[in-house]
Design brief:
This protein is 30% helix and 30% strand. By secondary structure, it is α+β, with helices and mostly antiparallel strands. A hairpin with a 2-residue loop joins strand 2 and strand 3. The protein is globular.
Length: 93
């Protein structure tokens, strides 16, 4: 069963675009990634094949990319509102 989350990154749109530029290929296990701006932060809604696939991406790709753009990675990552996907429709499914 697919796994997803909603989170808000403490990044501006410009910083998010720089971060996105550091991640060149779609990571293994990613089904859908969306980003939108909300109140000066970036809201992320993702769907992954599994939580384990996301956690590998987080450790191996996301955190190093955040460091390369100069984002503060010393604290805890933003909380995730995680969920098991019950149903998906559309091109991403």
């Amino acid at each position: 069963m697919a796994w997803g989350f909603i989170s808000e990154l403490p990044l501006s749109r410009e910083d998010y675009d720089r971060l996105n530029g550091e991640i060149h290929d779609d990571p293994e296990g990613l089904i859908l990634h969306t980003a939108s701006e909300k109140g000066g932060r970036m809201r992320i809604v993702d769907v992954w094949e599994s939580e384990d696939a996301y956690r590998r991406f987080e450790q191996e790709t996301l955190f190093p990319a955040l460091g390369r753009i100069g984002a503060d990675t010393s604290g805890s990552p933003p909380p995730l509102d995680a969920f098991e996907v019950h149903n998906m429709r559309g091109h991403a499914s």
